[in-house]
Amino acid sequence: MTWPTHALLGINSLWLLTPLPPELLLYDFGTLSACAVLGALLPDLDASESKIKHLKILGTNFKPFLLPAQVVHRTDQHRGLLHSLWGLGMAILIVAPVAFWIGWAPVVALLLGYASHLLGDSVTKSGIRLLYPSKVRFYLLPPGFRFTTGTFAEEALLVPLALLASALLLSSLF
Asked: pTM higher than 0.85 for the full model?
């Protein structure tokens, strides 16, 4: 999947938090959406060119993920370790301690975004190696329903995903 689809899937993963009372979250859905989008882009650190690799800090030319992306890409192929349960587990181990300083909700949002990326890539024809290093690919959909990344089938998903994300953000205002 392309980065816009992953970003919208990440935001939509926050629907899982909507049953919780707002006072329990301590953060607005705009902030949590940013965390979910970041999480949804993280698995593509292993891609030769990815949105997260070129993501800049606001108002600067500093790309905080450039070096990690280059290192990860040199040591592993795309849809390898970072696109597996091991990658999700590593993300949990790395970001869970941050919850002590910023609270649990942004960390959970980031991890939901990460998991949404794995689910999103599992509906493509390439699938993911969920149980890396096993070469077996995992697919969420049967062969006839899988699509190729960047095709019209993926682009057609953008409209309903954007509408759902907008509904989530608007509903959080009321």
From this structure: yes
